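Lab meeting, item 3. Inverse folding demo.
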């Protein structure tokens, strides 16, 4: 294959752009025509010098495909540049997601900057929080915790993303803050029901069978006034390996006041054991609606078995 100098590569690109050729076909051709180092050089050139939205979009997607190490710094520079063009917003979000796929500590400080910049668009901050969680560097812990604990933070979405990231880090220090949020007066938390759901999801990343703090928080959420939260807690308990879980969920099946919570508890118990729980409900002292749900569930699974 013919080797191209950098000037030849750029010239080739510029000619193709001027001809307004299809970008997907252009990049497919580039992948066939040039070697890896040349493709990497071309990606960096575009990220640093071009401003066409569609061209940048396709470039970032191709960078994500190849994940050349030498493209990471150009991606980082790209997310940090000041640009008032709203079309660049989605490009930066895409770039942050691509950066996270590198799982490199080099990206930690730039992503923390994006997360903590309250003047930045919330989409950038959401993407940065998620990226920090995926990279999994516990040096991001303090900044993420500050976001979750910050009473002046106006965006509940940012808090939710920070909670999710903390769950990915699996740092048990987060459990105390999660617990304090769960313990906050119900009147306040009604506005942040999704935040509590995110906390439950985050706790699911911990080893509930060994971490008593995590289990105790889940037990508290089984008594939450919101049926959605109780259902989320049941799902989290079902997916964790802990001996106490069956009894906790069975109590929800028997004593919870909401029929949808009872139905979810029944399915969770079925997944944790076998069809005997369905027979127990059908033949036991339970509401007729729940018995009928058990019969329907039994018929479905009997059909699958056949």
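The presenter then showed the designed sequence:
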């Amino acid at each position: 294959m013919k080797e191209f100098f950098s000037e030849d590569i750029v010239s080739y690109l510029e000619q193709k752009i001027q001809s307004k050729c299809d970008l997907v076909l252009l990049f497919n051709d580039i992948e066939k025509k040039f070697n890896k180092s040349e493709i990497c050089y071309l990606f960096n050139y575009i990220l640093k010098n071009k401003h066409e939205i569609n061209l940048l979009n396709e470039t970032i997607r191709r960078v994500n495909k190849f994940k050349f190490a030498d493209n990471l710094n150009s991606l980082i520079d790209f997310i940090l540049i000041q640009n008032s063009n709203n079309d660049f917003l989605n490009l930066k979000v895409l770039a942050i997601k691509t950066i996270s796929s590198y799982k490199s500590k080099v990206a930690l400080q730039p992503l923390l900057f994006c997360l903590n910049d309250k003047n930045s668009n919330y989409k950038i901050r959401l993407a940065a929080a998620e990226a920090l969680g995926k990279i999994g560097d516990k040096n991001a812990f303090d900044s993420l915790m500050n976001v979750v604990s910050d009473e002046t933070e106006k965006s509940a979405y940012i808090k939710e993303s920070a909670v999710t990231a903390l769950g990915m880090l699996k740092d048990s220090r987060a459990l105390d803050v999660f617990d304090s949020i769960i313990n906050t007066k119900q009147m306040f938390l009604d506005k942040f029901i999704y935040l509590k759901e995110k906390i439950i999801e985050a706790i699911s990343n911990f080893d509930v069978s060994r971490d008593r703090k995590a289990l105790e928080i889940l037990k508290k959420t089984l008594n939450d006034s919101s049926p959605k939260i109780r259902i989320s807690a049941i799902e989290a308990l079902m997916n964790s390996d802990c001996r106490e879980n069956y009894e906790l969920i069975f109590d929800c099946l028997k004593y919870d006041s909401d029929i949808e919570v009872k139905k979810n508890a029944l399915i969770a118990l079925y997944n944790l054991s076998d069809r005997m729980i369905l027979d127990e409900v059908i033949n036991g002292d339970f509401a007729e609606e729940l018995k009928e749900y058990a019969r329907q569930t039994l018929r479905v699974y009997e059909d699958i078995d056949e």
